[in-house]
Amino acid sequence: GINTRSFNKMRSIELREDCYDFEAVILRHCLRQVVEIGSSSLRSISFNGNGRNFSPALRSELVQLVLEVPDLDRVSGIDVGNLKLHRASEVRLSDRNLGDLEAEILLALVPTSRNLVRVCGQRIHFQDLSVAERLTNAALDNDRILHFFQFPIRDMVTGNLVHLSFSRQDPPLTNTEALYLATALKRCPLVESLDLSHNEIALEGIKSVATV
Length: 212
Hints:
- The protein starts with 11 loop residues before the first strand and ends with a helix.
- The protein has 8 helices and 8 strands; from the N terminus they run βαβαβαβαβαβαβαβα.
- Helix content is 39%, strand content 11%.
- By secondary structure, the protein is an alpha/beta fold.
- The strands form 3 sheets. A 3-stranded parallel sheet has the order 1-2-3, with no helix packed on it. A 3-stranded parallel sheet has the order 4-5-6, with no helix packed on it.
- The longest helix has 17 residues, at 21-37.
């Protein structure tokens, strides 16, 4: 649940139980008050995978409000405070329950972050695969980002790497990483060969890469 009475005094919010649009509406109301006031003790929010239970419209509203909360440091383990201030050189995703909501937060921050060179860490569990494609393209659009998860995207795009070997990755690549790679390869015309053997990519992921 969400304690609305002392919301403005809370330093952290952790949604531990299964939350849906009802709780999302309450959280939206509280965050709007914080944004309007312009000051808050709130420093961190952890959605614990509940973002996937929210409708797309509410999820997008929450993302926008979260980004406007003053002095908010972390959201589901994402260092939003330093990203907004261009102090972060690496985003290391630590929460195992990341989804479209957290990806949309990254989408808002990754393209313009001036010191970010690497995005890595836990896998994001996408419901909307277009969000995965948009996030990959956002990373590609930021010329400072060198690595996006297991992939050295800057060397791939510039042609410094034309023979790509991602065999036996640890952790193994799955359909999620295959979608990242397929999206990136559309902007890598100089790539000559690719090895994805001995991973955990299913047929859907193989098709996404093969059809590039």
